[in-house]
Amino acid sequence: MKCKYNFEYMQMRALFALFGMLFMSPIYAEAMPPNAAAASEVAATPEAPAVALSPFEERLQLCAGCHNPDGNSIIPENPKLAGLDKKYIRRQLEAFKGGDRTNPTMSSIITMVDPKEFEDLADFFSKQKRTVGTSDKADLLGQGRQVFEEGVIGTGAPACMGCHGEDGSGDAKFPRLNGQNAQYVVNQLMNFKSGTRANDAKGLMRAVAKRLNEQEMAAVAEYMSTLKEAE
Amino acid sequence: MKTILSAVIVLLFGLQATVAQAADAYVPKVYGKKGYVWDEMTPERVQVLKQKGDPVNGKEAFRGCQGCHKADAAGVREGVYPRLTGQHASVLIKQITEIRAGIRKNPKMLPFVQDPAISVQEIGDIAEYLSTLTSYRENGKGPEDLSAKGEKLFMTNKCYTCHGKHGEGNAEKSYPAVAAQHYGYLIREMNLIRTGVRGNSNPDMVKAIAKFKQSDMDAVADYLSRLPDYRTLH
Q1: Which of A150, A163, A208 comes nearest B66 by C-beta?
Q2: Which domains are delineated in chain B?
């Protein structure tokens, strides 16, 4: 049941994204009479910016719709981009573009973005400060911390901090996980486990995720969403 | 259409043939099976020993091992994951290449150490890097001090002829250092080597340990776990 709901929800999101693409694409702007375009802009934003947006700023607005202007997405299924390593972000954008990584929403969004823009986008989001969430699910947090620091001895899942860093701050090779949205993390772990996401270098993350059950995934995701970067 | 089809078929057969050939190239010879030679110089091991290990690359490559063996390579006290710091590079290389070749069984570790997770070059790099580490973090010991009984068994059964009087092993002959290793790991390995399940047992060691009761192994493991790291002796 839950699965079906998720699927429909994803489809809705994809439709929404396509709609967004149409609305924000330059073709749409050109097709509209100039004053109509201006009128709709004024209607949408009462305090119209005094200076016209640069193409890069406009592009950022597209991303901001789903990932927030500062890259700290508030939608649980969307990843926080803030503070991810620049090279990691680039690699993911290239993977979506080339089809090595797929997701109904992001795969359609990426068709609008020119690879020439990847560098600046990656640079911008990598420089934003990652926010950290809170949680009151004490039982999950305890188990999650154990998975993060010790792994799962029974199945041989290695500790997350071994690769992603003691405080989960990560780097180009092993991405930042501290503060990341829990639902997004669970989705990725499921994708690695099933092989739907297979762009991890040398299959390392797939090997880890295969050894986690859904309970452990939920727990470690909850814990990492509250994990702060070490001083 | 027909030509495309047959081209595909030819291609598939060709692929299959090359895959089969690659698999033919090296067949692991496991303890207890025909053709087993202890300390076999597998093609990969020969290659690793020929290269010069780079500790800087080794440090980077070792990051993928830290989730189990920990950042200081001292493993976990319960002994699920052994201490690698303080082990001879020659022994590390022997064990890693034999695990990759399927001679020593280690399914938990395999996906993180097999090709492509680690390259042939990186095996030597990691061994070189590990020999620069100096962690003496406390290892797991037995629940009660049985070192007097353990020492006696270790000496009278000639274990020391290979593993050294201080448990320091022998780098040249690839005999592992066993001093200051985790108690739980030592017990497990004695059992795995004795029963042959480990896959790369030394036949002379199997003979030496054949008559041990479980309580004897517990005592030897406790004794070895209480010995100081041999590197602190010189």
Answers
A1: A163
A2: 31-233 (1.10.760.10)
